[in-house]
Write a structure and sequence with these properties.
This protein is an alpha+beta fold. It has one domain: Sandwich (Jelly Rolls). The chain has a six-stranded antiparallel β-sheet with strand order 1-7-4-9-3-2, with helices on one face. A three-stranded antiparallel β-sheet has the order 6-5-8, with no helix packed on it. Helix 1 crosses helix 6. The longest helix has 14 residues. It is globular.
């Protein structure tokens, strides 16, 4: 979990709560000037070769005039400051923590929407999981524009107030909002919010990046352990390595031989290392109480 004390002075607990309230109330929010425009431009530039060599997608959902590629933390060191943005990470923690012990990185994906791209099918990203809807928020998405997002070049379309319990309803009758963004700003929206890319009617390529966070006990969209195997993740800051999956979600979920998978960052990992509890405090107390209650009871011999 990210401590709000890690935020710059102007990003207080009240700011995290205020943005979270807007996000939960309308299903999305836009944080202006989340990073300096030149920071977004620098990441875009380092990914330029990847954009140039990535084929167009195949399939009606991804879009035949769209390019997409992931593993951005391995492609550019500049991506980490977006993934670990203190204010946005704290908002994701605030929104999702009621349903998990810790959150995890769901994906990093660069997207280029080329001229002539049609509108994407409206969808809710949470539908990739078949869990209960209307009661749990599974994900927080963040759209980081590299180029200006405008109605003409396919700005993301969002249906306000289509999230949460309204995810049970048919597609809303009201029209979506084309959310125009400039590099440096960040669009946050919930996994339950209906949205989709707009159609690119311009002669410009619309480029940007999606970073999303989800509940730590879900299978993420992007297989993080394949995207960032131990020899790659060991070079990350410990907090980033934990976010991409090199930590356990208590109790004991996502372990390696019964221990935190970060043990794989060691130079020599024995074949047999022995399991160690990874429990929440309440579970640890329950286990200790139960064990204490057996004092003096002979153990069964098997």
């Amino acid at each position: 979990m990210v401590s709000v004390s890690a935020l710059p002075e102007h990003e207080s607990t009240s700011e995290v709560a205020a943005w979270s309230e807007i996000l939960l109330e309308q299903g999305y929010c836009i944080i202006p000037d989340a990073v300096a425009p030149e920071v977004a431009a620098a990441l875009d530039q380092t990914l330029d070769a990847d954009f140039a060599s990535t084929p167009f997608c195949r399939g009606d959902f991804y879009g035949a005039r769209t390019q997409r590629f992931g593993r951005l933390l391995a492609r550019s060191a500049d991506a980490a400051q977006f993934v670990m943005h203190p204010l946005i990470l704290a908002i994701a923690e605030h929104v999702l923590s009621p349903w998990c012990d810790c959150i995890q990185l769901n994906l990093t994906q660069a997207v280029a929407l080329h001229p002539g791209a049609p509108s994407q099918m409206p969808h809710r990203d949470q539908d990739m999981w078949r869990g209960v809807t209307g009661e749990v928020e599974y994900m927080v998405n963040v759209m980081w524009p590299f180029t200006p997002y405008r109605g003409e070049n396919g700005a993301t379309l969002v249906w306000p107030h289509s999230h949460g319990g309204r995810a049970h309803e048919a597609q809303p009758s009201h029209t979506p909002v084309a959310l125009e963004l400039d590099p440096g700003s960040a669009l946050l929206f919930l996994g339950s919010t209906l949205h989709g890319a707009g159609n690119n009617r311009s002669d410009e390529v619309r480029r940007g990046m999606i970073v999303s966070y989800c509940l730590g006990w879900l299978k993420p969209y992007e297989n993080q352990w394949l995207a960032y195997p131990p020899h790659v993740a060991r070079e990350f800051a410990p907090e980033l390595a934990a976010l991409v999956g090199y930590r356990q979600h208590r109790p004991n979920l996502g372990n390696y031989e019964g221990q935190c998978p970060s043990v794989l960052f060691g130079d020599a990992v024995p074949d047999r290392i022995g399991a160690i509890d990874a429990l929440r405090p309440d579970q640890q107390a329950q286990a200790a109480e139960y064990l204490a209650g057996q004092a003096g009871i002979p153990l069964a011999i098997k």
